[in-house]
Amino acid sequence: MRHLTALRSLRLSHIARTERSLGLRLVHTPSSTRIPNFAFAFDIDGVLLRASKPIPGAAESLSLLKEQGIPFILLTNGGGKHETERVAEISEKLNVTLDPTHIVQSHSPFAELVKGVDETSALEHKRILVAGGDGDSCRLVAERYGFKNVVTPGDIFMANPSIWPFSKNYSDYYKSFARPLPPVSGSQDPTMGLKIDAIFVFNDPRDWALDTQVIMDLLLSSNGVMGTLSEKNGRPDLPNHGYQQDGQPPLYFSNPDLWWAAAYHLPRLGQGGFREALEGVWAATTGGPGKGIGLKKTVIGKPYQPTYEFAERQLLRNRARTFMHATDLPPLQRVYMVGDNPESDIRGANSYRSEVGSSWQSILVRTGVYNGGEPVWTPRTIADDVQRAVEWALKSSKWT
Ligand SMILES: [Mg+2]
């Protein structure tokens, strides 16, 4: 929870640096001089796009909001690319000009950990492990956020293939992007091995087995040094039976979704599936919840509070920039979250407690995963599509 608190407690002093790392620089000039006291957050898949095709009315809705100077962001559990690339793709598909200020991806809040809350928590110059994504695309994203020392499981495998011999079948793949490392495991002195200071699952792992092995090695290590095994593991006199009590790196996941909708006719396992698998291995190794042993980790992404906090801070920045010449900026009172997934979009908006006192109102649309009936999380309203949702919200906020 310490790390969750770290994410939560990051405030304005880090915003400018985080903005730079996310490529956020552009200024919008609305045609209207009225200042809305509300804003929008849109999920992407099933709301604006479906199977990469625009949903009718989506482009018109975003254009209208831009024209009216009503702030909005796209809030997605997707990722794997830098915000600049992601937003360029969406702009092209919808034919609406968007810039990186308009998007929050699952891993965007990790950018705040580059500088941390203070010098000791800053990860900028620490060595971090980044798992997930194609090749080392997520390493490149992390580097653009400002992390200076990023290692992938593929680097570790190529430096010492005996760490997980079954990945030798994928050597050509790993060879295509792996970077050289100092010795991974100290051959004479185990404490001289590679030290990792934090573990980030940025996106869905492509090689669950290698990633599971490397993450388990680090969680069981002493001080995050590869090739070591903590002597505290399994000691009943210590908290959590000694597990994760010996300076092991904190573990972060960016996206809790167990399933996601892909081209196949049935949903596919998402990053949440990988996490469950890892938790299963962890429980089998340590004794797990039956023995009172947990896996300490931080999970962000919708529906969790830190992601909504980050999104709201971004909306506030966009709003301040849009109305930079206003003498008196009224507080942001309402944010309409438009989503197709009751479990993430609606649950997240309903559960969110704003730091600035805004009220998040959830609107469920029928163009994605929700297929009628009583939703598991009750939205403020249900709309046929995003255009109807925006119309409802504008009316509700008496914006004509
Ligand atoms: Mg969706």
From TrEMBL:
GO molecular function terms listed in the Swiss-Prot or TrEMBL record: hydrolase activity
Key word rRNA-binding present: no
Coiled coil: none
Any one of the GO BP annotations: glycerophospholipid biosynthetic process
Gene Ontology CC entries for this record: mitochondrion
InterPro entries: CDP-alcohol_PTase-I, HAD-like_sf, HAD-SF_hydro_IIA, HAD-SF_hydro_IIA_CECR5, HAD_sf
Keywords, alphabetical: Hydrolase
SUPFAM superfamilies: HAD-like
Family annotation (Gene3D superfamilies): HAD superfamily/HAD-like
UniProt name for this protein: Haloacid dehalogenase-like hydrolase family protein
Provenance organism: Penicillium ucsense
